Amino acid sequence: MLNCLRGDTHDTERAAFVSDGTSKTAYGAMTQPEPLPAAAALPAPIDDEIKEYHFHVYWFLNDPKTEALAMALRQRILELNDQGYFVAVPLATVNRVPRGPHPIGSYEVWVPFEHFARAYSFFTLNRPDPLIILLHPLTRHEVIDHTTRAVYLGGPAALPLKVDELTDTLSATPAQYPHLGLGYSAPKTL
Known about the structure:
By secondary structure, the chain is an alpha+beta fold. Helix content is 23%, strand content 22%.
């Protein structure tokens, strides 16, 4: 698709533009896409870039089967970290009761953006069916991060998080695991 927008298509795929600014294709007339904004009009990537994420693995309380699946997934994450497959750090605490905004059993896995794609792929392909995974960015805006910026893997609907347990806007973006030098703790680049 990017090749098509840049005009690098094969001759058989190239659309013939006509004087009214439309092109004739197998799908009928199409208008030319709007040009991209000038680079100066785009937000500065360093200021607006999300550098860390949380994956919260959920299971149903008082259900030994789903808790065992969640713990097996956690163990696999630890093994893959040890093997250098990715950096995805499970918090030491495992919540076997509701904690903070999380209404059921859970644990948190911190992932810096440098390893996000591999971690997301892992969770997508390896999440056992009964488990639900909440994925959200880690910014200063806890409520928004856990609601409108959040996505779920599995589950028929979003869980009702207790957002009153969160701070609307933190004074600073939390940098977790700064000793790893990743995410918000990575060396600044231009």
